[in-house]
Amino acid sequence: VITLSFPELLDRFGASVPYAMYAAFALLSFVFVLTKVPETKGVELEDMEGLQVERRSRRASA
């Protein structure tokens, strides 16, 4: 997506707009990972599978 969109955005808006837009997307991705992706450091593989099941069951009950 970036490979296809960058040249077009560069021609239309100059260098600052595409870089700012991609930086904003990176920041949103970073915030998403910090808030929604569970920490798995030191967690057994079997326990990680349990995390997925727990998250699905919470959504189903809501």
From TrEMBL:
Q: Which domain of life is it from?
A: Bacteria
**For this UniProt entry, what's an example GO CC term?**
membrane
Which GO molecular function, any one, fits this protein according to its record? transmembrane transporter activity
InterPro entries under this entry? MFS_sugar_transport-like (IPR005828), MFS_trans_sf (IPR036259)
Which keywords appear in this protein's UniProt record, sorted alphabetically? Membrane, Transmembrane, Transmembrane helix
A Pfam family this chain is assigned to: Sugar_tr
Q: Where in the cell is it found?
A: Membrane
Primary subcellular site in the record, as a coarse category: membrane
**Entry's transmembrane regions:** 16-35
What is this protein's name? Sugar porter family MFS transporter
